[in-house]
Specification:
By secondary structure, this protein is an alpha/beta fold. 31% of the residues lie in helices and 15% in strands. It contains 16 helices and 14 strands. The strands form three sheets. Strands 1-2-3-4-5-6-7-8-9 form a nine-stranded mixed sheet. Helix 12 links the parallel strand 5 and strand 6. Bound molecules: pyridoxal-5'-phosphate. Pyridoxal-5'-phosphate is lined by residues 118, 120-121, 124, 126, 175, 345.
């Protein structure tokens, strides 16, 4: 959007401070747009009386909230076809609840042992640490809850979730979700991450957030520095369309990547927004250029109010068909259907294995080449009774020992940084460190 329109928008929202504080994420949240007349005024568009009535009825069921930043990306000249507008602004079709649509299709509430925790898979949990978002995506799978409990849970509630994780040593991966976890202040999030760091069996933490897309100013240097103190942290974001890339969203991603956070992206396949192989190819290329690995492409869930966004599964398969082989494997997400009833994510792929017998498989590639792979004539399967100590594979799981130089060899080896060996208890070195000076790199302990 051009500079004058951006300035107009900022000043319409907040005449005194809008332009100056535009990049302040708290200002953005305070000025989120939540009613239809404001959208009309800010975009310079008009709905007729009948449309307005239907939209108001939609909002009573599923409320509206758009950050000024995200609203500013809408092409007002062609808003009906604008992918930003379609993801942010209600349509009366949301009230068409089809037979089979469900309030909680993924049974997240049912699979919840304590408030905020969904424990569906053996070794990882979803931890909803926020019940609010900066923007209400129209395609939210948790649409049933959007806006009705708009709050950030207090420490007492989160402690119950943390206790659950602490009491379940099988949990090695915790996904912070919500709502949007980055609605929390840096300090509050820092506290949660510190609590998780202190649980020995939690190996990694993942954050799911749409902030880089809908409010990139949330990704401050302070936030990135705080997250960096809690590694290993992974972050998955939610770009759905190439138009969502801007200088600010790129900068947010760069800040996170520079903090050493591996970035992933989860896209939802949405009719009229991104159900097109060309759009998807452009999207995944922009993602990898910005150091974001496309992780999942989701089939749109059967949640109430989403029927107008759903596509046939064949559209997803067509998109994956157009990516595999045609572009970097790194840029191809896994297409998944999240099973209604809580069965979890199920990957769906085009068919590449087209026939087989007892010693050959027939495959086709992305170009349509048909080929065979001949299987080995003999293969001795390993009998497995989980008696690993006696297995002929003698599998080792412990980390390998890295070669270390010993004694004088350390001083001769190019790969060792030692410059001198000093006997333990050398009084000269003792005096030196007493004076507060850093001891030189010296190796002195017996046995090295
Ligand atoms: C998606 C999801 C996860 C994480 O799944 P991954 O495939 O490991 O990314 C964990 N718990 C729940 C409830 C989920 O929906």
């Amino acid at each position: 959007m051009d500079e004058t329109r951006h300035r107009d928008l900022a000043e319409q929202l907040d005449e005194e401070q809008g332009y100056r504080r535009w990049r302040d994420w708290r200002w953005q949240l305070q000025h989120s747009v939540s009613d239809i007349p404001s959208v009309e005024e800010l975009l310079g568009i008009r709905f007729d009386q009948r449309q307005r009535g239907r939209l108001e009825a939609t909002l009573r069921r599923f409320p509206l909230s758009i950050t000024p930043y995200y609203l500013s990306l809408v092409d007002a000249e062609d808003f009906q076809n604008d992918p930003i507008f379609l993801q942010a602004f209600p349509r009366s079709a949301e009230l068409d609840i089809l037979k089979g649509d469900m309030a909680d299709p993924l049974a997240e509430d049912r699979d919840s042992p304590v408030e905020g925790i969904t424990h569906r898979y053996p070794d990882r949990v979803l931890f909803q640490v926020s019940n609010t978002c900066s923007m209400y995506c129209r395609h939210c799978t948790r649409k049933r809850r959007v806006g009705d409990r708009d709050y950030i849970p207090g420490r007492e509630v989160l402690r119950a979730g943390l206790d659950y994780i602490r009491d379940h040593p099988v949990v090695r991966d915790v996904l912070l979700s919500g709502g949007d976890p980055l609605m929390l202040s840096d300090d509050y999030l820092d506290w949660i991450l510190s609590e998780l760091d202190a649980i020995p069996h939690v190996e990694i933490v993942r954050i799911g957030t749409r902030m880089p897309v809908v409010l990139p100013y949330r990704v401050t240097d302070d936030l990135a520095a705080m997250l960096k103190r809690h590694h290993p942290i992974y972050l998955n974001t939610h770009f759905n369309h190439p138009r969502e890339f801007t200088a600010s969203s790129r900068q947010a991603l760069a800040r996170l990547a520079d903090a050493g956070i591996p970035l992933g992206n989860q896209t939802v396949l949405l009719a009229g927004v991104n159900d097109c192989p060309r759009i998807m190819r452009s999207l995944v290329h922009k993602l990898v250029q910005n150091r974001v690995r496309p992780y999942y492409l989701y089939q749109c869930d059967m949640s109430e109010g989403l029927s107008h966004f759903r596509t046939p599964v064949g559209k997803g398969i067509e998109i994956i068909e157009s990516l595999i082989g045609h572009t970097s494997g790194l840029a191809v997400p896994t297409y998944v259907i999240d099973a209604p009833g809580g069965g979890g994510k199920i990957p769906v792929m085009p068919q590449y294995l087209i026939s087989w017998n007892t010693n050959r498989v027939v495959l086709r590639n992305f170009e349509g080449v048909i080929t065979t792979y001949k299987e080995p004539d003999s293969y001795r399967p390993v009998f497995c009774d989980r008696d690993c100590d006696n297995c002929r594979l003698s599998l080792k799981l412990e980390e390998a020992e890295e070669y270390k130089a010993l004694g004088i060899e350390k001083l001769l080896a190019d790969h060792d940084a030692a410059v001198s060996l000093v006997p333990a208890g050398n009084p000269r070195i003792g005096r030196r460190s007493e004076n507060g000076a850093e001891p030189e790199r010296e190796e002195s302990s017996p046995g090295t």
